[in-house]
From TrEMBL:
Coiled coil: none annotated. Its EC number is 2.7.7.60. InterPro entries: IspD, IspD/TarI, IspD/TarI_cytidylyltransf_bact, ISPD_synthase_CS, Nucleotide-diphossugar_trans. This is 2-C-methyl-D-erythritol 4-phosphate cytidylyltransferase. GO terms for molecular function: 2-C-methyl-D-erythritol 4-phosphate cytidylyltransferase activity. It comes from Streptomyces zaomyceticus. The record marks R163, K219 as: Positions MEP for the nucleophilic attack.
Length: 238
């Protein structure tokens, strides 16, 4: 069966600061979204890419895809997104045609993920995992805090999880199609939220497996990340 990728790209990019929606900001002259689409379409296994555009930006995103060279073996669709990442992914899933067995969900904000990481995720799903996340060990010690009672009060540390057991998860996350669609439908009913797609599958009680992530799959979130992303691109071209 076919493999499709949903790329949520509908966020504003508040943490990046004022400017165009994050996915449309450029890295070395090319929109971040185009880098992300190319990164996914670089995998020969990917036959469809669904881009979830800013709600009022679907036409602009369609034009962008038309204006850039993309592999011809892959089909491209654009749908408008929602208020939250979760909603945007849900809208992307609803746009999938019949016959998709494996679905990847990939942040437009991770434009530089290497194709080997994409292929490793797809491979793990094809070998039978219902949910797969690429992940890396964390460098910083991570603390759980109790939020301050009123603004200005210090937060209190409540726990320090053992760092060796923590992983920072990236995208693309890969899923058996029906498992992810069920997870989204169930979570939408309960009104709960999750910050990643695998988190929703976990709540269904389904197993999620980890494959090695890659340092170049980092998420462009703050201005410093733009500097790093452009340096990585420059290094690739050198
Ligand atoms: N995203 C989306 N729809 C939303 C919010 C986020 O499709 N309503 C997408 C973003 O475009 C991004 C990915 O989800 O590709 C990861 O989200 P994040 O890095 O948080 O991006 P933004 O939400 O745009 O950034 P910020 O939180 O700083 O506003
Ligand atoms: Mg966000």
């Amino acid at each position: 069966s076919r493999t499709a990728v949903v790329i949520p790209a509908a966020g504003r990019g508040v943490r990046l600061g004022p400017g165009a929606p994050k996915a449309l900001r450029t890295l070395n002259g090319t929109p971040m979204l185009i880098h992300a689409v190319r990164a996914m379409a670089a995998s020969r296994a990917v036959s469809l890419v669904v881009v979830v555009a800013p709600p009022d930006g679907a036409a602009e995103v369609k034009n962008l895809l038309d204006a850039h060279a993309l592999p011809e073996r892959t089909d491209y669709l654009v749908v408008p997104g929602g208020e939250t990442r979760q909603e945007s992914v849900h809208l992307g899933l609803q746009a999938l045609p019949e016959g998709i067995g494996t679905v990847l969900v990939h942040d437009a904000a991770r434009p530089l993920v290497p194709v080997d990481t994409v292929d490793a995720v797809i491979e793990a799903v094809r070998e039978g995992a219902v949910a797969v996340v690429p992940a890396l060990p964390v460098a910083d010690t991570v603390k759980e805090v109790e939020p301050a009672e009123k603004p200005g009060d210090p937060e209190q540390v409540v726990a320090t999880p053992v760092r060796a057991r923590l992983r920072a998860v990236q995208t693309p996350q890969g899923f058996d199609h029906d498992t992810l669609v069920n997870a989204h439908a169930t979570i939408a009913l309960t009104g709960e939220g999750a910050t990643d797609d695998a988190g929703m599958v976990e709540r269904l009680g389904a197993p999620v497996v980890v494959v090695p992530g890659h340092e170049e799959a980092f998420k462009v979130t703050r201005p410093l990340d733009l500097v790093l992303a452009e340096a990585v691109l420059a290094r690739r071209r050198a």
